[in-house]
Structures are given as structure tokens and as C-alpha cells.
Specification:
Blueprint (H helix, E strand, L loop, with lengths): L2 H7 L1 H64 L8 H10 L2 H6 L6 E6 L15 E7 L2 E9 L5 E8 H52 L15 H78 L6 H31 L1
Antiparallel strand pairs: 1-4, 2-3, 3-4
Helix pairs in contact: 2-5, 5-6, 6-7
């Protein structure tokens, strides 16, 4: 039997496949929706964390500059704040390395908001980000002003830095989803097989009963659902069918005895007919000689009556009487013997 034929003849396998297909479709939809939702969450979380990191960096740099300015005033000196100074503070705070922990290919720039090559994309005095095409590459641009100063900290990273998190998340989600679906399918198959096992047993028992094995044991059912009622009904049907077959067997035995008696009676009647025919044939043969003799004697009397003497007439008469008595005796025997038989 091919696997396809086994599937067609197994209700539990078909039901498992239908349930598995339904679960697979629903699980795929859930995984896709969860992936899209997780993608948005990761993207928003990455953007928020990057903006927060830039804001913290800008705040630390602004505080450092304020302290340096206060110190310079106390010493009657003038502190000049320029790009190099801010870049030095960024390097001292190790801000770039911290940023690259979440965005491996990120680059930090310090620029004036009125002279930067990113002026077009930097708006307002608050932190912001843009997703754009720059030099034929898709990038994310994050900007954070340094306090009230004219300088901004700009972080630029390729879109792959953020999408790589999506890819890792998708792989993890896919692996866990496939594993969960497989476990779920196995559990569903075991549950379905367990609940349909009584139906398989009933199917085998019904097939065996249909083949003539009325003594096939049917297991007792302790359930009240459909399979339990079916099991109880099949046991009742088996008992009724066994009682009916026993009754038919008894009637068949009785008919066999009656048939044997009729065969014996028919044999006796046939033997009696044969005996009767044989007896009639034998009696007819015995009666033929006296009759012929009577006919000859009567014919002789008829022809030679005038020439016959008295003694001859008496002899012929005596012969005729003897033949007549013989015929009468044979007729009496013919009447008596069939009656006695």
C-alpha cells in the first residue's frame, strides 16, 4: 500500500493533516505579523536608543564646555569653543565606541548647523532623524544639537546596521516558530491518535465481524462521547447477530433432520413401488399360463363339442375349474400381499 493510499484509508492521518495545515497557516500568519510588529518595535527602539545616546553625549559635552568656560572666566581667560574642541570631548567620552555597540558602522560628525553638508536634513533645535538616500546609499541620519550652541552632533549609519537586527530577529523568530510548530503538530497528532484509537479498534472489529468472525472481542468503553456510544452499539449488534445466527443454525439443523426423514420416506416409497411392480410382473406371469390353458380348453370344447365323449368333457371341465381356481388363488394373493406390505 502506497503512502497516499494509507492516508486515504486513515481518518486520523487525514484529520491530523487538515489540523496541521490549519495550524501551519495560522502560525505562518502569526509569525509574519509578529515579525512585522517586531521589526517596527526594533526599528523604533534602535532609533530611540540612538537619539537618547546622542542626547546624553551632547549633554555631557555641553556640561564639560560650561565647566571649562566657568574655569576660564575665573582665570580671566577666554575659552574658544570650536569643532575640534567638541570632537576632542567626544573622543574622551568614548562616545563613538558606545554608539558602535548598537550601530557597528556608525560615524559621528560635529558640524555647524549653518554650514554643514547636512544642513538640508537638520531642522530645528531638537534631536531628529531622517531616513534618506545619500550618495546612492540608504542611510539613517541622526542629529543632536549641543545645548544652545551652533554645533550639532550628527550620527550617520547605513540602513544595514538597523536591518541586520531585523534579520537576526527574523532568523530567531523563524527557528523558534518552526520548532514550536513542529512540537505543536506532534502534540496534536498524539492527541488525535489517542482519541481516535477506539475508532480504529472498532473499524478492525467491524471488518472482522463482517468477515464472519462473530466472536471478535470488542473492548469496553468507559466514555460517553460518540466513540463510546458507537462502541456500545456495536457490542449490542454483535450480541443480536450472534443470537440470530445461533437461531438460524438450530433451524438449519432441524431442517436437515426433516430433510433426512423425507429422503428416507421417499426411499421407502420408491422401494415399495419397485416391489409392487416386481410383484405384479411376477403374478401376471403366473396367471398367463392358466389363462392360456383355459382358452385352449374352451376353444377345444367349442370346436369339438359333438365329437367329445363324456369323459373328455369331464376332463376338460376339471382342467378349466383347476385353472380357474389357480387364477382365483393368484388374485387373492395379489390382493393380500400388497395390503400386508
Amino acid at each position: 500500500m502506497t503512502p497516499l493510499q494509507k492516508i486515504r484509508t486513515s481518518f486520523s492521518t487525514q484529520l491530523s493533516l487538515w489540523v496541521a495545515g490549519f495550524v501551519l497557516i495560522i502560525s505562518t500568519i502569526v509569525i509574519i505579523l509578529l515579525g512585522r510588529f517586531s521589526e517596527d518595535v526594533i526599528r523604533d527602539e534602535t532609533i530611540d536608543s540612538t537619539l537618547q545616546a546622542l542626547e546624553n553625549t551632547a549633554l555631557r559635552i555641553d556640561n564639560s564646555l560650561r565647566q571649562s568656560e566657568i574655569t576660564a572666566r575665573m582665570e580671566n581667560q577666554r575659552l574658544r569653543v570650536n569643532r575640534s574642541r567638541i570632537e576632542q570631548l567626544i573622543e574622551e567620552n568614548n562616545s563613538l565606541e558606545k554608539l558602535r555597540q548598537s550601530l557597528p558602522n556608525a560615524q559621528l560628525f560635529v558640524t555647524r548647523r549653518d554650514s554643514s553638508q547636512f544642513d538640508f536634513y537638520i531642522t530645528g533645535g531638537a534631536s531628529s532623524y531622517r531616513q534618506l538616500m545619500y550618495d546612492e546609499h540608504e542611510i539613517f541620519l541622526f542629529s543632536q544639537p549641543v545645548g544652545e550652541r551652533q554645533y550639532c552632533i550628527v550620527a550617520v549609519c547605513p540602513a544595514e546596521d538597523i536591518s541586520s537586527k531585523f534579520s537576526r530577529m527574523h532568523q530567531t523568530l523563524l527557528l523558534w516558530g518552526i520548532g514550536g510548530i513542529l512540537v505543536l503538530l506532534v502534540v496534536l497528532y498524539l492527541i488525535i491518535a489517542r482519541h481516535l484509537r477506539p475508532l480504529h479498534q472498532l473499524a478492525d472489529a467491524a471488518q472482522s465481524i463482517a468477515s464472519g468472525n462473530l466472536d471478535t472481542p470488542i473492548p469496553d468503553s468507559h466514555h460517553e462521547h460518540e466513540s463510546g456510544r458507537l462502541q456500545s452499539g456495536l457490542k449490542k449488534m454483535q450480541r443480536s447477530l450472534r443470537a440470530y445466527m445461533e437461531e438460524m443454525q438450530q433451524k438449519q439443523t432441524t431442517l436437515s433432520h426433516q430433510n433426512a426423514e423425507l429422503q428416507a420416506a421417499y426411499g421407502e416409497a420408491q422401494a415399495y413401488e419397485e416391489m409392487k411392480t416386481t410383484f405384479l410382473t411376477k403374478m401376471t406371469a403366473k396367471m398367463a399360463a392358466p389363462v392360456e390353458q383355459m382358452c385352449r380348453n374352451t376353444d377345444e370344447i367349442y370346436r369339438n363339442y359333438a365329437s367329445l365323449s363324456k369323459a373328455d368333457m369331464n376332463a376338460l371341465q376339471t382342467d378349466i375349474m383347476n385353472d380357474t381356481n389357480t387364477i382365483v388363488e393368484l388374485l387373492d394373493q395379489l390382493i393380500k400381499e400388497p395390503t400386508e406390505a
